[in-house]
Amino acid sequence: MADSEKPIIDLQDVSVTFQSSGKQLHAVNKVNLQINKGDVYGIIGYSGAGKSTLVRTINLLQKPTSGNVIVGNQELLKLSNPELRQARKKIGMIFQHFNLLNSRTVLGNVEYPLLSQRISKADRVAKAKKLLDLVGLSEFERAYPEQLSGGQKQRVAIARSLANDPDILVSDEATSALDPKTTDDILKLLKRLNEKLGLTVVLITHEMQVIKSICQHVAVMDDGKIIERGDVAKVFSDPQQALTQNFVDSSANVTEALAQIKADQSLQALSANERLLFLKFRGQATKESLISDLTELYKLKANILFANIERISSTSIGYLIIILSGQSKQLADGINFLNQHGVNVKLLATEKKGEQTNVKTNIS
Ligand SMILES: Nc1ncnc2c1ncn2[C@@H]1O[C@H](COP(=O)(O)OP(=O)(O)OP(=O)(O)O)[C@@H](O)[C@H]1O
Ligand SMILES: [Mg+2]
């Protein structure tokens, strides 16, 4: 294999085991992960999945219990301490809580990683100014971190992480403390740095939108393992694992809509000719007039409680929550019609004589 084809990050069978109150905790469990140079690679998972622990092995901030970490052709576990220090400089990191030095100016923060380098003060300042310009903060170089907004602080942290010209930037929930607009700005900045500097970006998040907006590849992590991975559009448009499906559903606000519907007392009292349905459809089905066909052909009424279409690359995934009402034979035929057109239909609630109507929220 030519060097250019080798992944820049190659985690081989990496495990991290912690001893926690006498028990072993497998925070990272035999993970293999290859990331190519120039990629923007997302790692998504719920809290405690092991994301931070995994990415901390990339620069050996977390030493694996077993396995091999190869970054830019170097086996990091075989390096001497000075060699490892050098290798770490090529791996920048940014975090949710910026970690800026409050006693130093913006410029001083960006200069900081260069203090141990053998370069002149003039060169150091010039470099820091250039980086501040790159992240759009030139006019704030004399400000102190406390005078900046969260988005501006993260830009300083990004500039600082680039001081040693890293090949890799690891972003651990760097946008989690920011509002949606600022999140978008920071993600666009990361994408621009990826394109302009050829920087490989590894980005951890628990939000699918973050992955969708800038990543090319994604790995879904659960309980220390990668349970699904691949091209972002492919993984999220056709999830193979229930957890991945959960991320897609919550990104389309479906999870929240279902919870609200469950809490709605008026939906606890459906009549005999009503069905509360959750419909999910993808691709071509999102472009067809299925609901008007359904109501016309079977003389049904559809009361739409929630509707959304999530677009992932060129695939659309549609979600509808409706109360469908009509005669029971026609209701059954109508549901059949939907199934035949590739719509996944889940009955959330129906009238149950003598029992309270039960709205299910499990949609996987
Ligand atoms: N130094 C440590 N000692 C003991 N247990 C740890 C240590 N660091 C992490 N863990 C445990 O390992 C598991 C994975 O933690 P990790 O921080 O990697 O998860 P995460 O996916 O990054 O979660 P979050 O989204 O909340 O940041 C958790 O159960 C955590 O409690
Ligand atoms: Mg974490």
Automatic annotation (TrEMBL):
- Which terms does the record give in the GO molecular function aspect? ATP binding; ATP hydrolysis activity
BP GO terms, sorted:
amino acid transport
Which residues fall in a coiled-coil region?
Answer: none
Give start and end of each ABC transporter domain. 9-248
Its keywords, alphabetically, are: Amino-acid transport, ATP-binding, Cell membrane, Membrane, Nucleotide-binding, Translocase, Transport
Q: Per its UniProt entry, which superkingdom is the organism in?
A: Bacteria
Q: What is the lineage of its organism?
A: Bacteria, Bacillati, Bacillota, Bacilli, Lactobacillales
Q: Which organism is it from?
A: Lentilactobacillus otakiensis DSM 19908 = JCM 15040
| This protein's record includes keyword Nucleotide-binding | yes
Q: What is this protein called?
A: Phosphonate-transporting ATPase
